[in-house]
């Protein structure tokens, strides 16, 4: 099965809160929480994909170099879909977050993240946030 590269942004504000969104029910892994992001387009740099997805999905302008390297790279096979999450930690942004696709968007302190509310591939991200930050 083809593996899909997904740009995933962990945006952390000055108070240690992380920006989260709830995946719309009709999408893959619908109803789960996610870090904003989406599929990297062919030939697109990771930083460019993050900027595009954050603006499209949650109305946030990121300052991030196009050639940023992932903090974590996580491959996961959901059975119906195989993904590689390219995860970047972000802090520099402007704009008021808003769910442009009608989805719930909110800030939550990283201590309060619960892995079971996220897609299975996110477990490692949440563990690493707890230990590395
Ligand atoms: N954005 C995001 N996607 C995640 C996370 N964890 C995880 O397993 N995924 C998976 C779910 C999806 O299969 C895939 C992301 O695809 P997506 O549907 O959000 O892609 P997209 O934003 O480009 O959406 P579309 O244009 O195809 O509608 O990655 C996460 O924390 N954030
Ligand atoms: Mg998305």
List keywords for this structure.
133 residues, alpha+beta, Nucleoside Triphosphate Pyrophosphohydrolase, 4-stranded mixed β-sheet, 3-stranded antiparallel β-sheet, 2 helices, globular, binds 8-OXO-2'-deoxyguanosine-5'-triphosphate, binds magnesium ion, EC 3.6.1.55, NUDIX_hydrolase_CS, DNA damage, 8-oxo-dGTP diphosphatase
Concise summary:
The protein is of the alpha+beta class. The chain is built from 2 helices and 9 strands. It has a single domain (3-132), classed as Nucleoside Triphosphate Pyrophosphohydrolase, CATH 3.90.79.10.
Q: Care to describe what's here?
A:
By secondary structure, the protein is α+β, with helices and mostly antiparallel strands. The protein has one domain (3-132): Nucleoside Triphosphate Pyrophosphohydrolase (Alpha-Beta Complex). The chain is 17% helix and 33% strand. The chain has two helices and nine strands; from the N terminus they run ββββαβββββα. The chain has helices spanning 46-58, 123-132; strands at 3-11, 17-22, 33-34, 37-39, 61-62, 72-77, 82-90, 93-94, 105-109. The strands form three sheets. The protein has a four-stranded mixed sheet with strand order 4-1-7-6, covered by helices on one side. It has a three-stranded antiparallel sheet with strand order 3-2-9, with no helix packed on it. The protein has a two-stranded antiparallel ribbon with strand order 5-8. The radius of gyration is 14 Å and the shape is globular. It starts with a strand and ends with a helix. The model has no long low-confidence stretch (mean pLDDT 96). The chain binds 8-OXO-2'-deoxyguanosine-5'-triphosphate and magnesium ion. Magnesium ion binds next to strand 4.
């Amino acid at each position: 099965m083809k593996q899909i590269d997904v740009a995933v942004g962990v945006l952390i504000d000055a108070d240690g809160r992380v920006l989260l969104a709830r995946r719309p029910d009709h999408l893959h892994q619908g109803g789960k929480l996610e870090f904003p992001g989406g599929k990297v387009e062919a030939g697109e740099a990771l930083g460019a994909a993050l900027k595009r997805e954050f603006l499209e999905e949650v109305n946030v302008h990121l300052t991030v170099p196009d050639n940023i390297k992932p903090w974590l790279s996580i491959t996961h096979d959901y059975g119906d879909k195989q993904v590689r999450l390219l995860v970047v930690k972000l802090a520099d942004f402007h704009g008021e977050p808003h769910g442009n696709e009608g989805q719930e968007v909110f800030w939550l302190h990283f201590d309060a993240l619960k892995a079971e509310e996220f897609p299975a591939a996110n477990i490692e991200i949440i563990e690493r946030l707890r230990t590395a930050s």
